[in-house]
Amino acid sequence: MRRQDIQAILAAAGSGPKHHLGQNFMIDAFVLAAIVDAAEISHDDIVLEVGPGPGNLTNLLAGRAAAVLAVDVDRAMLQAASRHWADLQNVQWLAADILAKKHEINPVVIDSLRQIRAARGKPGAKIKLVANLPYNVASPLVAELLILHCRQRTAPAPTPFQIDTLVFTVQWEVGRRMAAAAGEADYGALGALIQLLAEVEILRPIAAGCFWPPPKIRSALVRIRPDETRMARIPDALRLQRVITHLFTHRRQNLANTLRHGFKEIPFSKIAGAVTAAGMDLKSRAETLEPQKLLRLVDIISAVENSSAEVDK
Question: 85 near 8, Cβ under 8 Å?
């Protein structure tokens, strides 16, 4: 799709690109093809696309998948795109915010995907996120999809909500935070959480000129595959997220200070004793701990929290 075509759709929507919604539209045909190829979409797959904008990626996805759910908070844009691509019979256009709140996927989106899978998909059809993500929702969306997947592992059959693959464009810096190893400058709560639940890889950088309007920064194409083995080690994904967030709130402080100030509801002597007994150094910092060591620390903190709660009863 040429820039002129996108401008025509925008004109039909009565607006231009909205900066506050992170609207930078992909116009490079080679990168669009790379996004679709990286998702390895089969004709049985259901695709969730967030922020379809003018629908140029939507058109390619519709040619590969059983069905596409295109979700956009910009209702006028969505209506204009749906009119432009009216011939795409396997695309459902949904005007909604993908996040009901910062830490919750919109239930309307989940229900829509389940209905589409029931109507169009075969039993066990895979759901994949494939999108040129609006930059302002990328981090919380990816984290919450993985957490939801992890929690749904024990949900009643036959239709647990799980994401098979996530392929998306995002700011280069955010992609680095998702993939960075312990000790690297970009390593933090987001990357640790994602790596405890999935495999993540940056497939390629994307130049600003591949978008219109071009952003001021370069982007990355990222692929994440949820890992069932890793998720099986997580008894409570929400607690994992909460504790890791606490641990990285003051990332430069050593564990002793982090635990003393971040978990005030637990007697520090108890938590410090448990951490030391596990062979962990209270002088180390969370940012130096690889994900599996962080998971061990989360387990220790959770055990102390549970034991303290039992004493208080």
Answer: no
Torsion angle of C-alpha atoms 258, 264, 265, 268, degrees rounded to 10: 70
Dist. CA 286–CA 244, nearest whole Å: 9
Q: Is 26 helix (H, G, I), strand (E, B) or coil?
A: strand
The model carries a pTM of 0.93
Q: How do 91-95 and 67-72 pair as beta strands?
A: parallel
Task: Using alpha carbons, list the distances in angstroms from residue 255 to 35, 264, 283, 287, 294.
Answer: 40, 14, 6, 10, 11
Amino acid type, 176: R
Token pair in block for residue 190: 């987001």
Question: CA-to-CA distance for 313 and 309, rounded, in angstroms?
Answer: 7
Helix H or strand E segment including 306? helix 291-312
Residue 250 banded pLDDT, cuts 50, 70, 90: confident
For residue 21, which phi and psi values (nearest 5 degrees)?
Answer: -100, 5
- Structural contact between residues 113 and 127, judged by C-beta atoms closer than 8 angstroms: yes
Q: What are 157-215's pLDDT values in tens digits?
A: 556 678 999 999 999 999 999 999 999 999 999 999 999 999 999 999 999 999 998 99
- Average pLDDT of the segment spanning 113-129: 85
Gap between the Cα atoms of 309 and 102, Å rounded: 28
- Domains of the chain by range and CATH? 3-231 (3.40.50.150), 237-312 (1.10.8.100)
